[in-house]
Design goal:
25% helix, 33 strands, 3 domains, Neutral Protease, domain 2, 28% strand, Immunoglobulin-like, elongated, alpha+beta
């Protein structure tokens, strides 16, 4: 009992100081899946890692008179899982537009004193459009019908017998749906109508029943498509035949197999020439040719056939309005064809910038991840959309009729193309589950979009994608805010920052401040190489970044990704000291303090500026007891002489915002020079709320600023400055004076 009492008395001060402790530096072990044979503790795929595969052979026809699509095809599903499957799940994403869809039933709405007709029509389902799949047939390879059950945007197909490990199963599906007008009902794909010439641009995706992912993490992907969270998809090979009016130009996932049948002799000649156009794009369909086709309506049809290997999805676009240009891009040992399709309404901007942006994206992303493995990359222009699929994406950015190109228009148009082409890497290659974790594709991709613009478009504004741009969001209303790790459909209005810009800001902080560019880039590339053409989860990213860098980042993931805390480091107090000057009495060999003009030491003094000068303190000889068993000694006199001429500053920092952060200090000296000093986040590890740190400076300090370049997303700049200002003072005024 006595020993326990002594222990309690001894540790009582520790518990008192740790009352606010929240474990911000504890490991993430309890939040991450236990490593196993499928996913290792290093973040790499394990020796027993497996994934499924689905191959598609399909045909479809788009009716340009009534904007509908009819399709059929065979899916071959390979079971590589260590268990038998008695049924398959497919995604029917077009059913988001069906009457009484789960999205419509679960979407809140309210009447205001005035409301646009289109908004109310959408809210109550009164718009003149009937969407959703009509499934015509589901049969096995022998033509026997297979039982199936549709649950909103999911379809369960019953198998005749369990599909064992290592077996495959082929089945046939026929379907039909009305293609949505994106202006009328929205959507990630659909049509855009041009009243001036009576033509359509078709951007077609989520157009066929697609296999759900079945994996080691949760079995079948089972979350409905509600419109926010995107897609979890399985890799496979595709052979697709697309029938459209014969005057339409088609771009699609994959490589065109029948160019002699699909293209005119002149188009084919130009396309072959573009394979050597490394310096600039070549026009395959010119603006004048596209304008002429707008006036003529072909009555015949033409079929374009595309093949794609090892992709997770298939999309296409077509129109008689399309201008088409292409340029060869060398990536490693391969040549990739960068191609743009756009109506005349996109010019002059698209002809100038689209294919150039594709090239820049492929080059920068390949250097940071893996070499782009596919033969083509398309950018297709359509109004008010940014959406990605393997080898093809749909992008906004339309000049006014007079063709003027503002800086904002240029930045937004190039930005969306870089972003959507960049999605070829995240998640089309490094294949995360977008339905679960938006940030794993959007956030990582927004970060590399920012890096591409930083390298190739140095005049562009990058504020929204770096820590500085997240201040307003991060200090917002915590009662409705969600962590980055929250699922996409549960994010409310915060999905944009949480999915895109906050993760980008976090990774920027990680690269520029926490790890350093060289270490970060190497670790990030390791993650991409490990999980290319596989299905990574958040823990695989977190563990890979740490494993490849030897940096423990659990505190970082815990704060930035699992919490809604914000950065607010307060420079609470600054004390300025000098060592008392001393001399040695030659007779007694004792140290005597010289009389000086320094202020007496007062540890309770709370200075607000440097006007009182430094406080003095004694630097004593080291007591013998402090050496314990060591026989050698420190030269106290030499050390004292070294420090007597120095300025010593004790800084007190408080973690007001709760989010652990590195501390960046800008020192301004009396001679006008400046110095930047970085304190790692580990300084908070024994006290998450406050720490003191002592600095020795040869020169006298006149100003101290914390986070001078807004690199850490500190939300309150007024408490980052010494000398202290009044509550109403503005940090910018201080910066202007200094």
């Amino acid at each position: 009992m006595r020993s326990a009492l002594i222990w309690l008395v001894a540790v009582a001060p520790f518990f008192a100081s740790a009352q606010g402790w929240q474990g911000k530096f504890e490991q993430l072990n309890e939040l991450l899946p236990t490593p196993n044979g499928y996913r290792t503790g290093s973040g790499a795929p394990g020796p027993d890692y497996w994934q499924q595969r689905a191959d598609y052979v399909m045909s479809c026809e788009v009716n340009d008179d009534n904007q509908s699509l009819t399709g059929s095809g065979t899916i071959t599903y390979y079971n590589n899982a260590p268990e038998a499957l008695s049924y398959l799940w497919l995604q029917l994403d077009q059913n988001i537009n069906a009457p009484n869809s789960l999205t419509a039933l679960s979407s809140p709405g309210a009447i205001r004193d005035s409301i646009p007709a289109k908004n109310l029509g959408s809210m109550v389902g009164a718009l003149p459009f009937k969407g959703g799949y009509q499934i015509k047939a589901v049969k096995d390879a022998a033509g026997k019908p297979l039982p199936y059950l549709i649950n909103y945007t999911m379809m369960r197909v019953e198998l005749p017998k369990p599909l064992k490990t290592g077996e495959k199963f082929s089945f046939y599906i026929e379907w039909f749906y009305n293609i949505n007008d994106r202006m009328l009902v929205g959507g990630r794909s659909g049509t855009e109508y041009f009243p001036e010439d009576g033509n359509y641009v078709y951007t077609i995706a989520q157009w066929f029943p697609r296999m759900c992912v079945f994996d080691d993490y949760e079995g079948w992907q089972n979350k409905q498509f509600l419109g926010g969270g995107e897609f979890a998809l399985t890799f496979g090979d595709y052979k697709v035949r697309i029938t459209v009016p014969s005057d339409h130009v088609v771009g699609a996932t994959g490589w065109l197999q029948n160019p002699k049948e699909a293209l005119s002799a002149q188009q084919l000649e130009r396309f072959e020439a573009s394979k050597n156009s490394f310096d600039k794009p070549l026009l395959i369909v010119t603006p004048d040719e596209a304008k002429q086709k707008e006036k003529e309506r072909a009555k015949t049809k033409k079929t374009w056939e595309f093949h794609a290997e090892n992709v997770r999805d298939f999309a296409f676009a077509h129109s008689r309005k399309f201008i088409w240009d292409a340029q060869a891009v060398r990536i490693g040992s391969k040549v990739v064809m960068a191609q743009s399709l756009y109506p005349k309404e996109g010019n002059p901007l698209w002809e100038m910038e689209s294919t150039k942006a594709i090239k820049n994206t492929l080059e920068v992303y390949s250097a940071r991840t893996i070499d782009y493995p596919y033969p083509a990359a398309y950018s297709v222009h359509a109004a008010s959309i940014g959406m990605e699929y393997p080898m093809i994406c749909f992008n906004f950015g339309r000049p006014p009729k007079d063709g003027t190109i503002s800086k904002r228009l240029l930045e937004r148009m190039v930005g969306v193309i870089v972003h959507e082409v960049g999605h070829n890497f995240f998640p089309m290659i490094i294949n995360s589950d977008e339905r679960q974790w938006t940030w794993m594709d959007e956030g990582l991709n927004t970060f590399l979009e920012k890096e591409t613009k930083r390298e190739r478009y140095p005049d562009f504004d990058l504020t929204s994608e770096i820590p500085k741009g997240q201040v307003a969001f991060m200090k917002g209303d915590k009662s409705v805010m969600r962590p980055i790790m929250a699922m996409a459909d549960n994010q409310s209005r915060y999905n944009g920052p949480n999915g895109y810009t906050k993760p980008s800001a976090a990774l920027t902080l990680l690269r520029e401040t926490v790890m350093g560019p060289e270490l970060f880039d190497q670790a990030f590339k390791t993650y991409a190489e490990r999980w290319a053409f596989k299905h990574p989860k958040p823990g695989d990213f977190f563990r890979s970044m740490e494993d490849a860098s030897a940096v423990d980042l659990d505190w970082f993931w815990r704060g930035w990704f699992y919490s809604t805390d914000h950065v607010d480091v307060t420079l609470d107090q600054v004390k300025w000291f000098r060592v008392k000057k001393t001399s040695v009495d030659p007779e007694r060999k004792k140290i005597k303090t010289q009389v000086g003009d320094l202020k007496p030491f007062n540890s309770a003094s709370g200075m607000t500026d440097f006007s009182d000068g430094p406080r003095e303190f004694n630097l004593m000889n080291t007591p013998t007891a402090d050496y314990r068993e060591f026989m050698n000694r420190v030269n106290d006199n030499s050390l004292r002489t070294e420090l007597e001429s120095k300025n010593i500053y004790e800084l007190t920092f408080k973690n007001t915002g709760g989010l652990i952060s590195p501390v960046i200090i800008e020192w301004t000296y009396k001679d006008g020079s400046k110095e930047i000093e970085k304190i790692p986040a580990e300084v908070w590890r024994t006290n998450e709320n406050e720490f003191k740190k002592v600095f020795v400076k040869a020169k006298e300090v006149v100003n101290i600023v914390i986070d001078p370049d807004e690199a850490t997303a500190d939300v309150n700049r007024n408490d980052n400055v010494f000398p202290k200002k009044s509550e109403s003072a503005k940090f910018d005024q201080f910066k202007q004076k200094n």
